[in-house]
Write a structure and sequence with these properties.
The structure holds two protein chains of two kinds. By secondary structure, chain A is α/β, with parallel strands linked by helices. Chain A has seven helices and ten strands. Chain A has helices at about 45-50, 75-85, 100-110, 115-130, 145-155, 175-190, 200-205, and strands spanning about 1-15, 15-30, 35, 60-65, 65-70, 85-90, 160-165, 195, 210-215, 215-220. In chain A, a hairpin with a 2-residue loop joins β9 (about 210-215) and β10. By secondary structure, chain B is of the alpha+beta class. Chain B has helices at about 5-20, 20-55, 75-80, 90-95, 135, 165-170, 210-220, 235-250, 265-305, 310-315, 320-355, 365-385, 385-395, 395-400; strands spanning about 60-65, 100-115, 120-130, 140-145, 160, 180, 185-195, 205-210, 225-230, 260. Chain B has a six-stranded mixed barrel. In chain B, α2 packs antiparallel against α12 (about 365-385) and α11 runs antiparallel to α12. Chain B is elongated and about 100 Å long. The two termini of chain B are about 30 Å apart. The chains are: A alpha/beta, B alpha+beta. The interface between A and B is medium-sized, with 30 and 29 residues. The structure holds adenosine-5'-triphosphate and magnesium ion (MG). Adenosine-5'-triphosphate binds near residues 20 and 44 of chain A.
């Protein structure tokens, strides 16, 4: 499903080039459960952002379902993000003035789905995450775990093929974190491709496939750094 | 696929409501600008209407003749010989009265004299004229009758006095039929003017009117101050003016030594001046709208940077750059629309208040100004938020999302 070929991403900081990703080759099958580990600053988020079309590689090719998405225009990439990719962030990124239901409806809103058709989809997405009774709550009225569940409902309401999660448990206590992981895993078991960045080795090990980044390069995940 | 317009408006509306202080501040700035335009043009238009009204009250289809030339066209033998322009006389007035296109004519003589009755006396303006003046000026009598029909050169000891003079001289007593002394002559009061005839130049409540020949005797003069002529119709104004000029030129041995103006010409001049004044005042007020525009730009820039994470999220969820700009521009449009509607309401209220406090000033803003100010505000709001919208749409999604 995903083919990365010779992906480089470098930043120039004060005239000095910084290689955040160094010649990455990676293939990921549809329906995979992949965890990305590695020390801080090793390029995990950078990789995830490129996979999510939020960032463009400095060089290399990214094929999604056989199509070279690096060649797409910004508008086309926005469309792919909207329809086929879901994001879950460490910071949740819920809009504080909107209710849970309104936050979940955002991707549909942006896709131009009519209000009448949005409602059942939003209700269903919230229901599946056990948040049906919190639909009209504002984020500030929800716990961290509940917020992340709303964020997951938002990521899945368009039924994407690919779910990208950057340290989704980073801001949660152990219990809520476990619950969020279980939710993501159950989504994966229903066929969605799950790629998750995590610092927690225990969580990382639960993935069926693990990769590790060190200084922007792929490394052996079983060797401690 | 793209955001529906209704959803765009609803989303922007929500964003505005999410930051009430900022939104209210901008609404205030815009509405103050709009209200200023409405109130100031209302005042200008009120002044124009007031003056027009006053002139209209002078009479309709009016031609005014006064001695002396207003323009210097050519040198005549008389000016070479250093003669002063010939006076207007009662004979001139009589000749005009016979002209075909003239409906009414009233010669006018003005001076001041002491009026007394019993122990009381005061200085008054004395207006010498004829019977037709009442109809020409659309005056109404409070009591009694106006000056009688007389040959122009016949004096008569009758006077029409203003209501204030009546009150001062007679108090609660009956005035009609009583005698008063004007200068060294005695006149019998035949009529009293009420407050109806207040208009430019003459306050009839404080004027005494006598037959023109009596006034000439009183002031010991043979000349006239002015002749008022009423044409049969508006269309007849120009021909009448022509005819008067010809008649008087013939009577004055070919000299064009009088000035003949139609009230229309005077009105048009005033209309033009006051109209220009309204534009100028409105223009100055519109500057406050430009200031509001700059405020909109600044506040929208702050709003964009405060909502960096939100904009990053929208991008991650699949909003293209154009969509983000449209959301910001919609916010600006909603603000401008709300601000201008509020400003129009405040402006109209202000004008109403002015009309209430100064009933003589018809302070109605010209109707076109409402549309113009609305269009101008929307345009200002839109153009000053182009930069913030551009900044938002060019924002880097990754950087926006990672900022904490
Ligand atoms: N906008 C940027 N400008 C310059 N350098 C950047 C930028 N973004 C990332 N980097 C650099 O790229 C490298 C990889 O960053 P990245 O955020 O991918 O790390 P990470 O593995 O996600 O770290 P963490 O575990 O702390 O989140 C780092 O060295 C970082 O300093
Ligand atoms: Mg990271």
């Amino acid at each position: 499903m995903i083919e990365l070929r010779a992906i480089n991403r470098s930043y120039s900081v004060g005239g000095q080039p910084v290689r955040a990703l160094d010649n990455i080759d990676l293939d990921i099958d549809a329906g995979a459960y992949l965890s990305i580990m590695g020390p801080s600053g090793s390029g995990k988020s950078t990789l995830l952002n490129i996979l999510g079309l939020l960032d463009r590689p400095s060089s290399g090719h990214y094929r999604l379902d056989g199509h070279d998405v690096t060649a797409l225009s910004d508008l086309e990439q926005a469309q792919v993000r909207n329809q086929r990719i879901g994001f879950v962030f460490q910071m949740f990124h819920l809009i504080p003035r909107l209710t849970a239901a309104e936050n979940v409806a955002l991707p549909l809103l942006l896709a131009g789905v009519a209000p009448g058709r949005r409602e059942p989809l939003v209700a269903k997405a919230l229901q599946e995450l056990d948040m049906g009774d919190r639909a009209h709550h504002k984020p500030e009225q929800l716990s961290g775990g509940q917020r992340q569940r709303v964020a997951i409902a938002r990521a899945t309401v368009t039924e994407p093929e690919l779910l990208l999660a950057d340290e989704p448990t980073g801001n949660l206590d152990h219990h809520s974190g476990q619950e969020v992981i279980r939710i993501l895993e159950s989504l994966n078991s229903r066929g969605i491709t799950l790629i998750m960045v995590t610092h927690d080795p225990e969580m990382g090990r639960r993935a069926s496939r693990r990769i590790k980044l060190v200084d922007g390069r792929l490394a052996d995940p079983d060797v401690a750094t | 696929m793209s955001l529906r317009s209704a959803d765009t408006v609803r989303y922007s509306w929500g964003a505005l409501r999410g930051y009430p202080t900022r939104t209210l501040l901008m609404l205030l700035a815009i509405s103050v600008g709009v209200a200023a335009v409405v109130i100031l043009t209302g005042l200008g238009e009120g002044a124009r209407r007031y003056v027009m009204g006053e002139f209209a009250a002078l009479g309709t289809n009016l031609v005014i003749i006064f001695p002396g030339r207003s323009e210097t066209a050519g040198i005549s033998p008389s000016t070479l010989m250093g003669e002063t322009p010939r006076d207007l006389t009662l004979a001139d007035a009589g000749a005009l009265a016979r002209a075909s296109r003239i409906r009414r004519m009233a010669p006018i003589n003005v001076g001041s004299a002491e009026i007394s009755r019993g122990g009381r006396s005061r200085e008054v303006v004395v207006l010498g004229s004829s019977h037709d003046l009442l109809a020409i000026r659309h005056w109404k009598m409070a009591q009694g009758r106006f000056l009688p029909h007389l040959d122009l050169d016949r004096a008569a000891p009758v006077a029409v006095i203003g209501s204030k003079i009546r009150a001062e001289l007679f108090g609660a007593e009956h005035a009609l039929g009583q005698w008063v002394r004007l200068g060294d002559r005695r006149f019998r009061v035949i009529g009293i003017m009420g407050s109806e005839g207040r208009s430019i130049g003459v306050d009839v409540e404080e004027t005494v009117m006598v037959p023109v020949a009596s006034a000439q005797q009183l002031f010991n003069t043979a000349s006239l101050f002015r002749i008022l002529v009423e044409a049969r119709s508006r269309e007849a104004l120009e021909p009448v003016k022509q005819q008067i000029t010809e008649i008087l030129q013939r009577r004055h041995q070919g000299e064009k030594d009088v000035t003949v103006v139609t009230q229309d010409a005077v009105l048009a001049t005033f209309d033009e001046i006051l109209g220009a004044l309204t534009y100028a005042v409105g223009g100055i007020a519109a500057i406050s709208l430009a200031v509001a525009g700059i405020l909109i730009m600044n506040v929208m820039l702050v709003a964009v940077s405060e909502r960096t994470a939100e904009i990053g999220l929208l991008k991650a969820l699949g909003a293209p750059a154009g969509q983000i700009s449209r959301l910001i521009l919609t916010e600006a449009l909603l603000l401008s629309l709300g601000g201008s509607l509020l400003g129009l309401a405040v402006g109209e209220l202000g004008c109403w208040l002015i009309r209430h406090l100064l009933p003589t000033l018809p302070a109605y803003p010209p109707p076109w100004i409402l549309t113009a100010v609305l269009a101008l505000t929307l345009l200002t709001g839109l153009s000053f938020s182009l930069l913030p919208a551009r900044r938002a749409s060019h924002m880097d999604a990754v950087a926006a999302l990672s900022r904490r």
